[in-house]
Write a structure and sequence with these properties.
Elements (H helix, E strand, L loop, with lengths): L28 H4 L7 H9 L9 H5 L5 E6 L7 H9 L4 E6 L13 H13 L4
Parallel strand pairs: 1-2
């Protein structure tokens, strides 16, 4: 915590969870990582933006007519389980499977992609084990 003082300001008094930061990029990284240094001016511009448009049209997703198949990982360090489940439930025609036997990168992980696709195709084919 002492190495990353930004985390010292996190308040947990309101019972809000403190999430992992696995896919986050922090300003210091544009100084610390040589490969990112040339991107620092662009990153600063993007970080200052406050008028981002809505990312997803929830009304459109609620009226979706195209089948969607998804995997939800209970112990995913990048996407909170409740958030993933809530999001999937908002998409009409979305079928999903929930697992704690795989993680966020299962579709590309050695030995796991076959299982992910097996589960997704089972959803598509409406097959139950």
């Amino acid at each position: 915590m002492k190495e990353h003082p930004a985390f010292m300001n996190v308040s947990t008094s309101n019972d809000e969870p403190v999430f992992f930061t696995g896919e986050m990029i922090y300003p210091s990284m544009f100084r610390d990582y040589f490969e990112l240094r040339n991107l620092a001016p662009t990153a600063d511009i993007l970080a200052q933006m406050c008028d981002w448009p809505v990312l997803y049209n929830t009304e459109r997703l609620a009226n979706n007519e195209i089948p969607v198949y998804a995997s939800i990982y209970i112990d995913d360090m990048y996407v909170a389980y409740d958030f993933a489940l809530d999001s999937a439930k908002k998409i009409k025609k979305c079928k999903y499977f929930i697992t704690n036997a795989m993680y966020h990168n299962a579709i590309s992980a050695a030995g796991k992609s076959e299982e992910v696709f097996k589960q997704l195709f089972a959803l598509r084919d409406d097959v139950m084990d």
